Each structure stands twice: as C-alpha cells, then as structure tokens.
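ERR on first pass: missing label on line 2. Operator R.T. fixed the label and resubmitted. Corrected input:
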Amino acid sequence: MEKQNYTIRSYCSIRDRSIRVNGNNFFDADPSAPLGDFLKSAYRKLGVDYPKFHKMDGLCKAIFIAAELITRESGPYEQHMALLFANRSSSYLSDNRHANDVFMPGNPVASPSTFVYTLPNIAMGEISIRHQLQSENVFFIFDSYLPEFLVPYANATLDSQRFERSALCGWTEVTEETCDLLLYRIGASGYLPHSIAQLERLYNKEDE
Amino acid sequence: MSELTQELKAKIIAQLNLEDLTVADLDDHTPLFGDGLGLDSIDALELIVMLDKSYGIKLSDPKEGRKVFETIQTMADFIEANRT
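pass 2 clean. output:
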C-alpha cells in the first residue's frame, strides 16, 4: 500500500446561521432565524434548480449545501471519491418525526417521505445522486468532532487506491434548531495539510 | 369537481413539498410522473397515504395506481367514484 501526504482542497462550515467556504463568508442570517428557513434561504442563494432539496430533512439539506459550495470552489467531484462522514445524532430528526407518526393515535399510515430519511447515510446517497458519484461511503456516530479518528481513517482509505485518492469528509451534526457542520475535500492537490491540527483549527475557525 | 381538483393541487403541493409551485402552476391534465411534474416512487407512496388519510380510499392494487395517478384529473375522478 503506497502512503501519500494528502491535502485539503476546499472546506465549508455551517454554524450559528453562518456559512463559510474556505474561510470566506457565503451566507449569514439572524442567529434567531429558524434552521429550516436559514437552509432554505441558503439554497435560494446557491441559485441551483433542484426541487428535491425541499423534500430532504435538515441533515441532508445542510450537507447538500456544503457539498455544492465545495465543488464550486474546487471543481467537479471525482466519480469514485470516497465519502467519510460523522456526527453525534445520526438521523435523529427524521427518526423522531417518524416515531411520532407511527405512534400518533388515529394515524393510519406513517409518511414514506419521512421514513426514507431515517438513516444518516441517506444524506450521502443524496449528494451521490446530485454529483453522480459511484463511490463507497461510511457514516460514523461519535460523541463529538473527532479528527483524531477521521484523519488516519481517510488517509488509509485513500492509500488503498480504490477511490481516485480523493474524499469528501467531515462532521455533520444537525438538530432541530442547530447545525454544526464542517465538510472538507481532500486529495493530492490541495492547499492546506490534511492533519489533525489543521482540522482542529478549521473547526475552531482559527485560520479565519 | 373543479373544487376537488383545486383541493387536490393544494394538498399535493403541501404533502410533497413542491415549494416552487403554486396551485395556479398545476394543470388538471399535466402528467404527475415522467416528464410532467417529475414525481418519484416515494411521492407515489405519499399520494397513496394521502388518498387513505384524506379520502378514506385504500389502494390495494399497485397496477391501479398507475392509472389513478396519471394526472390531477384522473385522481379527482377516482376520488369522486370511490370516496367514503
């Protein structure tokens, strides 16, 4: 297995009703704005025509927006790019909504469109459809942002040479009203080191 | 019948989160699937649930659904003939 040094080509953060790409502001909203309205406004600002966005749950919407901005900054995604995501709450938003449907007295049938989002890796499926990716993916559930795990895991994945030495990775925690997301694209031709220390800095916005 | 088609359009837009459409954008005879509204298989399931919840109609034969969900008008015709 040939080991390489990988670099970060582009990154996007969504937190506190603010979206930043490579450290530059893309969209800000009032911190008290409902998360759903904030994500919808960001989608409108993207200027893409993708009606399926409106059917997605909050987790998918946030990841969709970040993935869209990263490819704009760093070029089209490689078809066999690996997807390595993690969060704390999995797909709890949709799970909870579906459970409420199922257990609601007098409700004959739960909503199929809620049910389809009751797995976190559906979000990776959504961006794979959008960007025509045919890669493998994995979604980890951790207590907190954990670059100590993701960096060596991503390096080993790319060293295996099955994924065009390219990956989209990150932390994607979305709850009813909060979004804590850092997505980053790694490969051979980036401008920041793909290291634990660098990812700590990006997450804490120390480079901005 | 016109009242029912209008009601159906509003329900479909709300139920399927067709954010960019209004009732006025939907024609009674526009195909719901394929080149028309471009609905997908999950939307089809959602329409089946809507028939059950809103009109008390259970669709048990999937083949029947293909005809029923062709357009707003075919849905309205089916509801008129079967609602409880």
